Task: structure prediction
Amino acid sequence: MSGRRRPRRRSLEARLSVALGAIALVVLVLAAVAVDALFGRLQQRQLEALVGSEAERVAGLVRSGTLGERLLAGDQAALRLQFVGEDGVVRLPDPSEAVLPFAALPTRLVADDGVPYLVAARPWALPSGALLGSVRVALDLREAESSRARLRTSLMLVGVAAALASTLLALIVLRRSLAPLRGFAQQASSLDPAEPRLAPYRGPDDEVGTLADALERALAAIRARQRAERDALAEIAHEFAGPLTVVAGELRALVRQRPDDERLQTARAAAAELLHAARDLRTLARGELDRTLELEVIDVGPVARSVAREYPGVAVHVEAGDRRVVAEPERVRQVVRNLLRNAVQACGDATRVSLAVVPTADAVRIDVRDDGPGLSPETIGRVFERYVSGRAGGSGIGLAVVRRVVESYGGQVSVRSTQGSTVFTATFPAFHTHVDHGAGGH
Amino acid sequence: MSRRRVLLVEDDQRLRALIERELVGAGYHVDAVATGGDALTRVVDGDVDLVLLDLNLPDVDGMEVAERIRRDGNDVPIVMVTARGDVDSRVDGLYAGASDYLVKPFEVSELLARVHVRLREHGATGVLTCGEVTLDTATGCVRVGERSLHLAPREAELLRLLLAYRGKVFAVTDLERRLYGAAPPASNTVEVYVSQVRRRLASLGAPDLIVTIRGRGYVVP
Result:
């Protein structure tokens, strides 16, 4: 049952939301890159226009002879202006300055010290028309580029944050919409194999609703099939009932007449076995245990002793105390008988089987121990299931009946098995747990 | 005591022969018939202490037979025998007035035990005892040690049932049917009777004789 499910599965929610987050991240990063590129081109064009127009303007001023103190527009410290002679020497503002390169169109360059700048040049002409050289304008791009870098960083940060946020949101939304699936899984893992049924699904008619419908239809089909099987079982048991009663009864009478005939005794024991098997089938058939009417307050001790007499050699130990339970006596007998039969079949010898009735605080425990080969770990968990036979020679009915009967009375069944010692235990709630003291009237 | 008469109604000849032989062997006088019609005739003729009734009869359904017996006011114990093991038929059987119910296949020894118990309980008159408590069913006088008092007839019948079927858990509906027959009383009448009997028993010093089993009914354990 397990084994295949390890290693620990990862949650679908987590995987889906991480995937969604990753997709969001990629999309946002791509968007950020695109925005950055667009912004960069726009910025470049604007700055080029600025540098170009500045060079043009200065050249124009010089040409028209209205050379003032302030050649450069505004107060842009980032802009530098040079008048370079035909010989390539800076004439203004300072001949010692490194000469700016000539560029007919605005061009981005990087200075030796790593500072990026944009440069543009125009002819340096006097009002007379004499050409003296070129007017060169340079714009320091550090400011612009760092603001672009800042924009890029913020875009990235926003992108990552948005991706994280979308992961979280996806997780929450998925968690909510997948909750019914978790519910199904939980119900499925605790499904009663005898009556598989899911709680009705009350949710939107979406994919989950479709799944719920499909599951319910499948389970309904299984239930119908099981019902048909049980009906067939009941029908078979019904057919056997009359003849079996006659066979067992007549053999019983014959054994009384000829008590020394071993073959008759064998036949009689076999008939009794058949009779009990038919009853077990009936018990597993539909409805038999749903309501018991003939409840009695009975001491489990004498009942267990009388059943044990059917298996001569079984050691019986009945502990003192209040061993009363509320049940149909025949049901308790059926439980004890099936546990004993199972044990005797497993080890092949009634003298290697022991039966104990132990009253505990709130229950009466019936322990049946045998020293036959133990149960394998694979079968031990399923040994109370219908048609699952733990050991050779079992039909897989007896223990299923034990569990159905015991659980119908609110009791429990369990089994412990080691090599050479197997103990089946059935508990019935003690009589006093059924007593309603509130209605005691005193 | 004269031999008790059991009316056996069973259409399966083999079963009828077996059960008749066993009952006779156990000391009962047995009338064995195969049909519901014959059964009703015998009951009307009287002198039957217990009816062992198969549900699956060729002419009149066993349930119907039980109902007719009860309708005539006859409270003879009826033990129903059937191969139908499902709950519905058990409920129907008990409502039709059966005292007990045996599902095939069964061991003849079980059947004898049931017949024995039902006959004993039905005839449980005279003085019934449980520990210190005694009930004289003839007078309705209940006694605990030195103290005693008289119960009203229905109270006495209630206590008689619980003492006669000691250990059996009586559902409220079951008690209603046994105390009132086919005309059930107002819904909580039985509960009222039970608490009255309890109060009377408490006044005598036996408050815990009748125990309530949660969701099931009452019992003298």
